[in-house]
Amino acid sequence: MAVMRTGELAARAGVNIQTLRFYEREGLLRAPERTASGYRDYDERDLERVRFIRVCQGLGFTLHEIEQLTHLHRRLRPSGEEEHVQPAAVSGIVELANERLAAINEKIRLLTAMRAELTALLDGLAQQTPLCPASR
Known about the structure:
Blueprint: H1 6-13, H2 17-25, E1 33-34, E2 40-41, H3 44-58, H4 63-76, H5 87-126
Helix pairs in contact: 1-3, 4-5
């Protein structure tokens, strides 16, 4: 398996070096092997892990949820069995995804209410009859 140094892994994954070190400190990325001179050696699995973390972050998952998803993802196909998917792992992923979706929907609801309040305030200001949100 090809070996990468920290800079190469960061570049290929589209993150900075500090992000890799942060993931390592948080336990999301394994502590890599080190050369005799102390350089970190990463491989393709580490690249895939960082890409997985970035995709999960893009979907709004927290680092704690990503850690849970990582464990569940490993359990999907134990021992490389292509034909056998672990239903418990799938259920865990679905549960986490549903929780994240509910949180996103709640944020959308709150943001929609904030937008309506701000729009009403701006409409009032445009008509020279300011409506102070505190006076309602």
